[in-house]
Each structure stands twice: as structure tokens, then as C-alpha cells.
Amino acid sequence: MTARPLPAPGHMGVDYEHRVDFDRLRHYRLARAEAALESSECGAFLLFDFYNIRYTTNTWIGGALGDKMIRYALLARGKEPVLWDFGSAVRHHQLYSTWLPEESYRPGFLGFRGAVSPEVGLMADAVAEIKSLLEGAGVADLPVGVDIVEPPFLFEMQRQGLRVVDAQQLMLDARVIKSQDEITLLTQAVAMVDGVYQDIYEALKPGIRENEVVALANRRLYEMGSDQVEAVNAISGERCNPHPHNFTDRLIRPGDQAFFDIIHSFNGYRTCYYRTFAVGSATPAQKDAYKQAREWMDRGIDGIAAGVGTDEVAALLPKAEEFGFANEMAAFGLQFAHGLGLGLHERPIISRLNSMKEPVELQVGMVFALETYCPASDGFSAARIEEEIVITEDGPRVLTLFPAQELVVANPY
Q1: Please, which of 42, 66, 140, 289 could form a disulfide with 374 given CB 3.0 to 4.6 Å?
Q2: What band does 1 get if pLDDT is binned at 50, 70 and 90?
Q3: pTM, to two decimals
Q4: Cα separation of 128 and 136, whole Å?
Q5: Contact, 106 vs 97, CB < 8 A?
């Protein structure tokens, strides 16, 4: 009997079905972060990572500010999170993100990654305010865990007597087990990409450019409700091998092998989802490469279960030398798995490069994308497959449903 598909119930909350419970999601994420803090030596976490900020405060503003290092949040023991945000976003949070007290939302600005010199004093003032809150919480004498930070801000924390330690490892551990609501959002995000691949299949004809496929994917995803299209890789023809991880304006030609990776988020939860096509027809070399990539994929999936070590899964993936690379560092990113959630690359990371040295036990609730790649014997074509997987009590469940057991020929002659 075929297992019932995991639900991708739609974008709206309704009164006649259980769908995503956002209050439950917010409580789950904050509780996981608080438990990570309590288990540590830290008195507080100071978070600059956009995904950690969203995880703890359940707020979000435009992705264009995600790499500017101007938003930050403080999670102190026994206290509500405090968020310093950009301009009028503060007032918007106070009006619409009322799960935190109004005083938890504060204006903050640190200088756009050095565009405003640290000599102006913005960072010194910010650290002084943070230190005052730590003193009020009675934890100023304990280490402060920081995930990512600009060097001048770190130096200022040290100058003002704060002891800084790493919080990113703890936050990644907190985020690794997904709740039922997170899994539903991840599945909904995947369902949107399922539909985009149908559109790509229909459009993939000689004369269309790689960038046109990227435009098509972006348009359809935003029409379907994506909140951020992070990247769409489009690779075709002789560009397939070696794999460049980008797109160009190359015209797709008859007989090309072409693969795509669609990375977007729905309510913050990301996809990473490769599919490979042949355009019009497929050569024996292209079919053989795809068959091998699929065999590696199936071998990896068959080895996934709760309680299994990531080293055991990595051992099922081919060695770098088996597909033309000198070592695992040179081949990294082609045969591996990476956790998915609010971030594109979360835990677990499964590869021969790292998993043999420090294996991690797979657990129910982990969600990750498993990727394989196989160059073709013609010297320029290649196959790329990626499946998103959630570990359940009953074993691995594949979320990515666009057909991938065999090489799909788009618009065959």
C-alpha cells in the first residue's frame, strides 16, 4: 500500500481542516532556542543570523537586508527576546507581531557593514544597551553566545568587558528537529516547485535561453506565493560538465541535457530541488549518466533511517575518484546531503568530506536534501538529481514528487 503523501494543504488557514498552526510554530521555535540557551554556559544569545532571528522572534523583513548585519536579537535567560530592527519595521512589529511585548521591539542600526564608520559610535552605543539588559537580567557575568558578527562589533563587546563564545552551533542544534508545522511548510514549498517543473518541462525547447527559464521559475513561484526566490540555477549542454552552479543567457539546443536547481522559500522554509531533462531526445551517454545518478540516489535513500549515523549514509555515496575528482574537497557539493529549514544549509550535512570524521545520528524530524551528480561519457553532459527527505518513525519520506526515476525528455521529437 502506498503511503499517504505528506500534506501540502494550501496557503490559507481555514476553519474546516487542520493546517499550519502559526502560534504553535512560534512557541515551538522559541522553546527550542530557550532550551539550547539553558543547556549552555551562556547567560544570553546575541543573534545576527537572519534565520536565528526569525526562529527566536518570529519576525521577518525584506531579504535585501539579510546580509547587512543591522538586525540583531538578544535572548537572555528568563526574558522575552529583544529585537533591534530597521527603521519603521519596529513600529510595524509593535502593531502586528504582538506575541512579544511592545518594548521588545527597538530601533537599531549598526552601519551597513562598515558603510558608516565604527568611529561614529553606533556599535559602542548598541553594546552598552545590550550590556545594560544583561545586567538587568542578572547574567552580565556569564558568556554571551554570538552566532555571526562583524569584527568591530566583537571588539567593542570585548572592550566593554563581555566574554563572547560561539552560539551558532547551539542554534543549529536547536533548529535541526522540525515540528509538524515546519514539515508542512517545507512540503508546501516543495509542492510549488513541483508545479514549476511542469512549466519548465513544457517550455524546454530549442531556442529558449537559460535565463528565460530562470525568469519563468521566478514568476511562477511569486505567483504561487513564494516569499523569496533565493536562486534558480539553469545549466545546459556543454555547461553541464563541469558544473558551474549558475545560469547564463545560453540558448538551449536540440539534444541538450539540462538541469535546474530551484531554491525558494514559503513562509521562510526553503527548497533545494534539482531535476534533469533531455531536450527533444537523449543520447545513450546521457541516459547512462542519469541511470547512475539515480542508482546513487536510491542507494543513499535506502540507507536513511532514524538511528543511522551520517557516516553510514555518506559511505553509500560514491567516492570522488569514482566520478572524476581528485579528492573529496574538490568534489564537495555534488554527492552530499544538507539540512533544510529557514536556512538553505542546516544540519545534518552528510558527505564523505566531513561525516566520516564526526558522524551524527539521524533522528525523526530531520529534513534534508540529498544530491547526486554524474558526468556523462561524452565529456560534457551530466545528470543531477536532488530529493528532499523527512525522517519519520516509518523511515524516510520523499517530499519532491516531480518524476525523477528515469531521465525525462522534454518535448520529444
Answers
A1: 289
A2: low
A3: 0.96
A4: 12
A5: no
- Summarize pLDDT for 330-377 with one digit per residue, the tens: 999 999 999 999 999 999 999 999 999 999 999 999 999 999 999 999
Check residue 172 and give its pLDDT. 98
Backbone angles phi, psi at 302, to 5 degrees: -65, -25
72 in Cβ contact with 46 (< 8 Å): yes
Q: Residue 256: which of 199, 195, 210, 309 has the closest Cα?
A: 210
DSSP-derived pairing of the beta strands 72-76 and 44-47: antiparallel
